[in-house]
Amino acid sequence: VDKHWFKLSEKSQFSILNTNYELNKNVGEWAYIINKETNQKVAKWKNPLSSPVSIYFELIDESLKEYELLFLGIFHTYLYGE
User: Fold this and answer.
1) Strand 9-16 to strand 19-26: parallel, antiparallel, or no bridges (unpaired)?
2) Rounded to two decimals, what is the model's pTM?
3) How many other C-beta atoms are found inside a 10 Å radius of the C-beta of residue 71?
4) What is the structure's pLDDT at 1?
5) Which residues touch 33 (CB under 8 Å, ≥6 apart)?
6) Exposure of 22 by Cβ count < 10 A (0-12 exposed, 13-18 middle, 19+ buried)?
7) Using alpha carbons only, how large is the chain's radius of gyration in Å?
8) Which residue has the higher pLDDT, 23 or 80?
């Protein structure tokens, strides 16, 4: 559930797979999805503000490998327009 649009630096919380997560975003830096229960980063995304446009994504928690596309999709949904 997203209750508002991201600003330059913001956090958004969501729940999937019966786990609470937080997406932290800072313009020009890595954005992270963090497991709120363990406080561990599970995935990261960066969209450098340079040309040519490239998006970098990494699944940090390999135990979630089967959900890699889900986390990529969450970043894309929230941050694609950045």
Assistant:
1) antiparallel
2) 0.80
3) 23
4) 47
5) 21, 22, 23, 41, 42, 43, 44, 71, 74, 75
6) middle
7) 12
8) 23
Alpha-carbon distances of 37 from 21, 24, 27, 41, 72, rounded to whole Å: 8, 15, 25, 11, 20
Q: Kindly state the percentage of the chain with pLDDT values over 70.
A: 82
Mean pLDDT (whole number) for 40-65 = 88
Question: Residue for token digits 């991201």?
Answer: 6
Q: How many CB atoms lie within 10 A of CB 78?
A: 20
Angstrom distance (rounded) from CA 32 to CA 50: 20
Nearest to 33 by CA among 3, 66, 78, 2: 78
| Residue bearing tokens 């890699």 | 68
